[in-house]
Amino acid sequence: MQLTDAQRLDWLRLIRTEGVGPRTFRTLINRFGGAAAALDAMPDLGRRQGKRLEPPSRAQAEDEVAALARLGGRLIATGEAGYPRLLQQTDAAPPLLALRGAAILNRPAVALVGSRNASTAGLAFTERLARGLGEAGLIVVSGLARGIDARAHKASLPTGTVAVMAGGQDRIYPTNHGALVDAILGEGGAVLAEMPMGWVPRGRDFPRRNRIISGLSYGTVVIEAARRSGSLITARYALEQNREVFAVPGSPLDPRAEGTNDLIRQGAALVSEVSHILDVLGPIIERGPDADAAPARGRPDLREQPDFWDEIDLDAANPDTLAAPDLFQTAEPAASGSSEDLPEPVDDRARIVGLLGPSPVGTDELARTAGLGIRVVQTVLLELELDGRIERHGSGAVSLLSR
After folding, report:
1. What is the per-residue pLDDT across 129-146, written as a single tens digit (0 to 9) for each?
2. Which listed residue, of 44, 71, 227, 367, carries a Cα 20 to 30 Å from 337's Cα?
């Protein structure tokens, strides 16, 4: 399928109509035979619902397309050749995606996600995984956040990475990741967004983004995650999409490992090296995106995670209530403790403490990750040692003592 320019504008106007999400969009298209007819039906549907349903004007849609084009982007629709086939198979695939960068969305991919307040050990292991997966021919997908996401993107720049944004293409979040986006685009990667141009991400937009991250990928690897982190939401979506879930174990003394250790206890595949991922995904990738899903093995039980979707079933609804509520209405703005917007450490000591955990890390690696001089790091470590906060190990490694 290839939309005409006029059809693409109609699709854009329909999906940008308040109360129309991916599932509602699909039902309306099927019911009315196309986006243009569905748009014509909006006033009548609104009257039956007792409210006005006003799609954006054609001029507003044209403005959005033009603004995206000025950034070098384009809109791709479900069914078109460039649309990711794995994502298209999911229940709530976005009808339109704003894409900047290379056409790599149909190459086999793995998602790497984790804590924004990541430890040095977690960041180092993320880098090892991302490089190994890239060398094996896989694209690395992540969410452009601080911590694990950013390290995954940076380590996979030479082999290909896809960043999924929570806001519009012109609203990079966090704002200091503009250089990272430029690097991704400059190295042959891709940047995706579902939301309109100018859209500043809100709490509920991050779960929307997460289901795209998992939907693009054959498997999702969670590297560090607290029990109610946003990364576990990505794992939940992966399960609902019948994709593989992997988790990297961590110290039981580190709160950043509680979520990943729980995933392993509940059935996720343990990962301590790249081959653990490749051994599971190799046969699945070989079958291709259109093959029937393999029988599910032991999978984590994430039913306690909050439900981020609230959509009316149009097919079961009374014809007088066809106008659906906002597909993305959430039970709460964001998962408690998901740390979507953690503040940066306020000083060198706080930065170093945030990077330390129960697992020993070398002083040089700590300095490199913190972006601080070795003398500064050594001074802070001495202060922490005098305070009884750290333990020293062989070869200059240190770890944080639990309180």
Report:
1. 999 999 999 999 999 999
2. 367
Which DSSP state fits 78?
T
Going by their DSSP bridges, the two strands 139-142 and 161-165 should be labelled as parallel
Of residues 324 and 159, the one with the higher pLDDT is 159
Q: Cβ distance 209 to 194 under 8 Å?
A: yes
Q: Domain 348-400 belongs to what topology?
A: Arc Repressor Mutant, subunit A (1.10.10)
> Among residues 372, 376, 341, 318, which one has the least CA distance to residue 45?
318
C-alpha distance across the termini of the chain, in Å? 60
Strand 390-392 and strand 397-400: the pairing is: antiparallel
Q: What is the pLDDT of residue 42?
A: 86
The CATH number fitting domain 85-287, selected from 2.50.20.20, 2.60.40.1180, 1.10.10.10, 3.40.50.450: 3.40.50.450
If you count them, how many residues does the chain have?
403
Six-digit token string for 31: 């019911």
> Whole-model pTM?
0.79
Distance of alpha carbon 8 from alpha carbon 53, whole angstroms: 20
Sheet holding 269-270, edge to edge: 73-77, 96-101, 190-193, 161-165, 139-142, 109-113, 219-222, 244-247, 269-270
Domain map (residue ranges) of the chain: 5-72, 85-287, 348-400
Residue 91 to residues 40, 212, 215, 240, 334, Cα–Cα distance (Å): 26, 11, 10, 9, 21
Give me the half-sphere count of Cα atoms (radius 13 Å) on the Cβ side of residue 20.
25
User: Exposed, middle or buried, 376 (CB in 10 Å: 0-12/13-18/19+)?
Assistant: middle
H/E stretch holding 221 reads strand 219-222
- So what's the pLDDT on residue 148? 96
The residue type found at 380 is V
* Residue 321 amino acid letter: T
**Amino acid in position 54:** E
From the list 70, 58, 69, 72, the residue with the least C-alpha distance to 16 is: 58
Which residues touch 318 (CB under 8 Å, ≥6 apart)?
none
Q: Which DSSP string do the residues of 32-59 spell out, in sequence order?
A: HSSHHHHHHHHHHHHHHHTS---PPPHH
